[in-house]
Amino acid sequence: MLKKLNVVFMGTPLFSVPILEMLIENTNVIGVVTQPDKVVGRKKEIVFSKVKELALKNNIKVLQPLKIRQDYQDILDLKPDIIITAAYGQIIPKALLDYPEYGCINVHASLLPNLRGGAPIHHAIIDGYSKTGITIMYMDVGMDTGDIISQEEVLISQVDTYQTLHDKLSLMGASLLLKTLPMIINKTNSRIKQDENKVTFGYNIRREEEKLDFSFEKEKINNKIRGLNPDPGSYLLLDNKIIKVYLAEVIEDNTYQEKENGEIVKIDKKSFYIKTKNGLLKILEIKPEGKSKMPVASFLNGNKNLVGKVVNRCFDEK
Fold first, then answer.
1. How far is the C-alpha of 318 from the C-alpha of 266, rounded, in Å?
2. What are phi and psi of 77, to 5 degrees?
3. Predicted confidence (pLDDT) at residue 318 exceeds the cutoff of 50
4. Which residue segments constitute the domains of the chain, with CATH numbers given?
5. Do residues 283 and 272 touch, judged by C-beta distance below 8 A?
6. H-helix or E-strand containing 86?
7. Cut 0.90: pTM above it
């Protein structure tokens, strides 16, 4: 049944790849829509999205409209039975939403109505959620506001990072979509309205939100470090230089109450410790400005005199 289903898939980042792989294996993917190619680096090299790479490998037609709200006729011309999106990156126009027989379906990386928006995985960790999951939903003209078809949840562990949670949810999205598609085709699926009183948001991370604030509780700071690891990465400022922080550990130590929040109060062979509102944060993995990611042990080889320095001080941010 699914093999005869003509699917247009819309997605861009690595999160979308397992979902597209599943669709290629189980349905008839007639087209893939992804964001325009990026030009990166000093050599201005053209980089394809991961979704485009997979589509080309499987000889699937690729469309890359700059603004899909204005340029969607080529998608309609493919005559899809269903359009499936996963982290595509643009708002889908109503003309596309209304066209397919089985609708436009979105694979969203949260338990809606929690964490609508473009960065639900980041925010699930940053905002201290104990669980998150995947929602398969009908799309409508709002941002992640459509009716829920199915959901599956996963617990967030204290060692989960954006990367580990991303990978779990990406595979879960493919699996749940495969289980849900037959119900959509048979029109036996659930269709649950979202409770607007329970809505939270997971908007895209802004640059200013990546900076760590040591006046907060150590748990909250560590959540941000984990939630932004590895991309885009949180940071602090030390000696007027940006240091990305990728791994830390919450320490139950209240012997430095008189110290200033943000002060480096001690070091050992593998880490340095920063005073927060309610204890210490042990910094374990960083990326100093202009250098590669490294364990703090390597950084300390040339930076022994850290104790007493206060991070985020006297830096002119422009």
1. 30
2. -65, -20
3. no
4. 2-198 (3.40.50.170), 209-300 (3.10.25.10)
5. yes
6. strand 82-86
7. yes
Decide if 104 contacts 139 (C-beta within 8 A). yes
- Mutual orientation of helices 50-57 and 17-26 as an angle, nearest 10°? 20
* Cβ 20 vs Cβ 54: under 8 Å: yes
- 6: nearest Cα among 57, 50, 61: 61
List, in order, residues 6 or more apart from 214 with CB less than 8 Å away. 221, 236, 261, 262, 274, 275, 276, 277, 281, 311, 312
Quote the CA–CA distance of 253 and 54 in Å, as a whole number. 49
* Interatomic CA distance for residues 117 and 171, integer angstroms: 20
- Cα–Cα distances (Å) from 112 to 25, 86, 147, 290, 316, in that order, read 28, 15, 10, 40, 40
Residue 3 burial class via C-beta count within 10 angstroms: exposed 0-12, middle 13-18, buried 19 and up: exposed
* C-beta separation of 194 from 112 below 8 A: yes
Amino acid identity for residue 82 in this structure: I
Round to whole Å and give the CA distance between 215 and 16: 37
Q: What is the pLDDT of residues 162-196, one digit of tens each?
A: 999 999 999 999 999 999 999 999 999 999 999 99
Mean pLDDT to the nearest integer, 301-316? 83
Alpha-carbon distance 313 to 318, whole Å? 14
Phi, psi of 240 (to 5 degrees): 65, 25
C-alpha distances in Å from residue 203, one per residue of 54, 69, 114, 226, 277: 27, 21, 12, 17, 26
- In a 13 Å sphere around the CA of 181, the CA atoms on its Cβ side amount to 24
**In the predicted structure, residue 42 carries a pLDDT above the cut 90:** no
